[in-house]
Write a structure and sequence with these properties.
Radius of gyration: 52 Å
CATH superfamily of the largest domain: Succinyl-CoA synthetase domains
Strand content: 15-25%
Order of helices and strands: HEEEHEEHEHEHEHEHEHHHHHEEEE
Structural class: alpha/beta
Mean pLDDT: 86
Low-confidence stretches: none
CATH topology of the largest domain: Rossmann fold
């Protein structure tokens, strides 16, 4: 009989062999029996149609998951195979987990994108303009990542007058979407009197894999950005990375550093602008002074300046001419008006109905009505004859 192994020795040996040959493998399968322990560790089974294997993912790795694993999910995991010696059980210690294939993840992305677009959250008319000279710049990103350092450096270099306020959040993992959305709403809820309320808000993180950036593709983050009254610049990943947050934000930057450049003006450019304005203002003032000096010199050199009495006499003579013209025009106007009145009076006299009576004619009336012809005055009719000095009543005989 050969050497007799203890159970512990055998399982330890097997663990070493398995770890040496399968210490870094990618395995695809379906999740089942997913259990998030109170400690934060995640235990589950990875299976396919022919076999299954037990798995564990430690808490500090679970925090960075871009989704919440659940039974039935098809995933790919990167893991180290080994033996759980206490039970002599083969298991995988999972380091990375992502949905199986890019197709399912991309389908979820496109579905959410279409939904939010249909609601008008991507519309250009709802996007807010960025302030020209922000007093306070808010940042929602990881407090320990390179993204915050890059943004703060650019802001300090370009526009040190702006106050920078950071709300640190996890930017990947299952907790990240809720934390990012909460930070955006907290900034937006600050009253206008609070010095921490930003005039513009930078939301994002540095580069990473699609799974690392997935928090910025979550619906909760997108709706928090859309509801904010503070203008928001999205800066997620690198130039080639595009997220749902980019579509909803008021402006999109290719990188966190570029977001900082968009958010504030460049103090050097401002200095140049102020210097240019100052030079133009000085040139304008000099031109005005030169023009005014020329006018004064021409006045001083004029004869009127040296002979004020002559200038006064010339003005008095011009005034006399104006008064004479005014008087002659007034007299001509009076003559014209008098002639017009006389003409009208003559016309009135020619139309006076009493004029014929004064010349010996009489007006024949019957009951106040004029009798124009003899035929209209039948025998026996009483008529009234109106003369210039009175009336008489007569009766027609024949």
């Amino acid at each position: 009989m050969g050497d007799v192994w203890s159970v512990q020795a055998l399982t330890s040996k097997l663990h070493g062999l398995v770890e040496a040959h399968y210490g870094d493998v990618w395995v695809a399968g379906e999740l089942s029996n997913v259990n998030r322990a109170a400690s934060g560790h995640c235990y589950f089974t990875l299976k396919d149609d022919a076999a299954q294997i037990q798995c564990v993912m430690w808490r500090y790795r679970v925090r960075h998951l871009p989704f919440e694993p659940s039974d039935g999910d098809r995933v790919q995991v990167r893991a180290a195979a080994g033996i759980y010696e206490k039970r002599g059980q083969l298991q995988l210690m999972v380091q990375v987990m992502k949905p199986a294939g890019r197709g399912a993840q991309q389908a979820a992305f496109e579905q959410l994108k279409a939904t939010l677009k249909a609601e008008g959250l991507f519309a250009a008319e709802r996007k807010q303009s960025l302030p020209s000279f922000p007093h306070t710049v808010g940042i929602v990103t990881s407090g320990s990542g390179a993204a915050f350092h890059d943004m703060r450096t650019v802001l300090q270099r370009r526009y040190p007058l702006a106050q920078v306020v950071l709300c640190p959040v996890p930017v990947q993992g299952t907790e990240a979407p809720t934390a990012i959305a909460r930070a955006i709403r907290r900034f937006d809820a600050l009253p206008a009197s609070d010095a921490r309320r930003p005039d513009v808000l930078l939301v994002g993180r540095g580069g990473g894999s699609t799974e690392d950036l997935w928090a910025f593709n979550e619906e909760g983050v997108a709706r928090a950005i859309a509801e904010a009254t503070v203008p928001i610049i999205s800066a997620v990943g690198h130039e080639t990375d595009v997220s749902i947050a980019d579509f909803v934000a008021d402006a999109r930057a290719a990188t966190p550093s570029m977001a900082a450049e968009i958010a504030v003006p460049d103090q050097q450019e401002l200095r140049e602008q102020v210097r240019g304005l100052h030079q133009r203002m000085r040139a304008n003032v000099h031109d005005r002074v030169r023009t005014a000096r020329g006018a004064v010199e021409r006045l001083v050199q004029s004869r009127a300046f040296h002979s004020p009495v002559t200038r006064l006499h010339n003005a008095q003579q011009r005034l006399d001419h104006l008064v004479d013209r005014l008087q002659r025009a007034g007299r001509a106007m009076v003559r014209e008006r008098r002639q017009r009145v006389a003409t009208l009076q003559q016309q009135l006299r020619s139309l006076d109905p009493e004029a014929p009576l004064r010349r010996g004619y009489a007006l024949v009336q019957r009951d106040g009505t004029v009798v124009p012809t003899a035929a209209a005055a039948e025998p026996g009719t009483r008529l009234t004859l109106r003369f210039a000095d009175g009336t008489r009543v007569v009766e027609v005989q024949a």
